[in-house]
Amino acid sequence: MAAEGGSDQFIDIVKLSPPAKFPAAFPQDLKVAPSLKRRRSGGDTWVVSVFVIIHVGVFIATMLVNDCWTNSNGDCALKTLGRFSFQPLSENPLLGPSQSKLEEMGALRRNFVTEYHQTWRLFTSPFLHAGLFHLLLNLCSIIFIGIHLERELGPLRIGVIYAMSAFGGALMASLFLQHTPAVASSGALYGLLGTLLSELIWNWELQTKRVSAIVSFVFVFVCNFILGFLPYVDNFASIGGFVSGFLLGSVLLLSRRLELPKVPIKGTLFDYGVKSYIKLKLKQNMDRPVLRIVSFILFSLILAGCLVAVLHGININSYCTWCPYVDCIPYTSWHCQNGETSYNGER
C-alpha cells in the first residue's frame, strides 16, 4: 500500500506472506476434504442395522420350522426352550437346526444346485446361519466392522458391497459344494473385511490407528474362518465374499482428497521437496481411475465366470482332492459328508 502524498510504496509483508503454519507431520495434519468430514460425522448406520435384524429374524424362523421338541421326539439340546430348542450337539455342534430344515429354509447343497438347478438358493443361503454360535459370532463381527465402514463410506456404498459380496460368496460356495447343506452368510461379513483391507491399503498414509485396525482385521478374519471348519458353515463363501468386497471397495471407495499448497514449501521443520510434492499432487488429481477400472473389470469377470460355472453344474471338488478340507475338517463328533452328523462315526 502506498503512503499518502509520497511515491514510495510499502508492502504489507504479513498479508502477502504464505501461512506460517504448514503440516508438521505428514499426513495426519493435512486437511481432508469437507465432504469427507460431513460423511464421517454423520454416523448413519441404518443399513447394517437392517441386515442384522433380517439375519436374526431368519434364524428365529428357522428354529420355529425346525421344532426339535416335536420332530426329534424331545432329543434336543436346551430342552427348556421348547420349540426353540436345538438339535443335539452330536448332530449340530453349533447349536442350530437339523440338516433337513436348513435345506428346507434354502441352504446350498450340491444336488440341489447342480442337478435340480435351484438357483434361488444363491439368494437365500446368505441369510441363513448354521447355529446360535455362528449367528452370534457373525453378527457381532458385522456390527463391529460394518458400523465403522458405514460411517466412513456411507449407507449406499456399504449396502451395495454387502449385497454383492453375499451373492459373490454364494456363487463361490456353489462351486465347492458337497452332499451336505451349506450356509453362505459369512460371505457378506468377509466382503466387509475385504473392503476394510482395501481402505487400509489404498488410504494407508491417512490412517492414524494402523495397528488397531490391523489387529481387529486379523482377529475377526481368523475367528470366523476357524468356525468355518465346522459343518454347514461354508469357508468358500467367505473367500468369495472377501475377494468381492476387496474389489468393490477399490471401486467404490471415495478417496480422501488432500488440500495441498499451491507450490512446494521448503525450509520448514519438515522439508517437503519437489518430488514429494509432485507425487502427492498427482495422486490427488488422478484419484486412482486406473485402479477403479481394473478392479471393476476383475470383479465383473470373476462374478460372470462363477455364475456360468454354477449354471453348467461344475464342481471344483472333482478336480481338487484337498479342497473339501478347506470347508470342513472331519472330527470324532461330526461328519462332513452325507447324512445327519452323529457322534463317534455312527449315522
From TrEMBL:
It is a multi-pass membrane protein. Serine protease involved in intramembrane proteolysis. PANTHER family: RHOMBOID-LIKE PROTEIN 8, RHOMBOID-RELATED. GO terms for biological process: proteolysis. The gene is LOC107460810. It is an enzyme of class 3 (hydrolase). Keywords: Hydrolase, Membrane, Protease, Serine protease, Transmembrane, Transmembrane helix. It catalyses: Cleaves type-1 transmembrane domains using a catalytic dyad composed of serine and histidine that are contributed by different transmembrane domains. It is found in: Membrane. Its main location: membrane. It comes from Arachis duranensis. The chain crosses the membrane at residues 46-65, 127-147, 159-177, 183-204, 211-230, 236-254, 290-314. Residues 117-253 form the Peptidase S54 rhomboid domain. It comes from the Eukaryota. The lineage of its organism: Eukaryota, Viridiplantae, Streptophyta, Embryophyta, Tracheophyta. This is RHOMBOID-like protein. Belongs to the peptidase S54 family. One of its GO terms (cellular component) is membrane. Its EC number is 3.4.21.105. It holds the Pfam family Rhomboid. GO terms for molecular function: serine-type endopeptidase activity.
